[in-house]
Design goal:
single chain; 117 residues; mainly beta; 7-stranded mixed sheet; 4-stranded antiparallel sheet; 11 strands; 0% helix; globular
């Protein structure tokens, strides 16, 4: 089992910044990828960014590239999402996700980010 706990969401004005954290515990493997997925009100879930624990390779959705940065602290089993120049369309619940080598998906409960003036 893997447990994922997100934190860091909140209300921010357009152009502002937030940093989300995802603390992972349980049977974590360095080969399992970590990602941030978001769901805006009335819409489906959307991939935001992903990272591998081992090599640190990253990938981003086109809509956030250049504004968001995903990183990891292996010693703390924590993944971060630094979000800069936030826009109203970034408003969503942000979920931390991983998939084990057995194909099992694990999700956190999510943290709400609201971008509004």
């Amino acid at each position: 089992q893997v447990q994922l706990v997100e934190s860091g969401g909140g209300l921010v004005q357009p152009g502002g910044s937030l940093r989300l954290s995802c603390a992972a515990s349980g049977r974590i493997s360095s080969s399992d990828p970590m990602s941030w997925i978001r769901q805006a009100p009335g819409k489906g879930r959307e991939f935001v960014a992903g990272i591998s624990w081992s090599g640190g390779s990253t990938n981003y959705a086109a809509s956030v590239k250049g504004r968001f940065t995903i990183s990891s602290d292996n010693a703390k089993n924590t993944v971060y999402l630094q979000m800069n120049n936030l826009k109203p369309e970034d408003t969503a619940v942000y979920y931390c996700h991983t998939r084990s080598s057995y194909g099992v998906d694990y999700w956190g409960k999510g943290t709400l980010v609201t971008v509004s003036s």
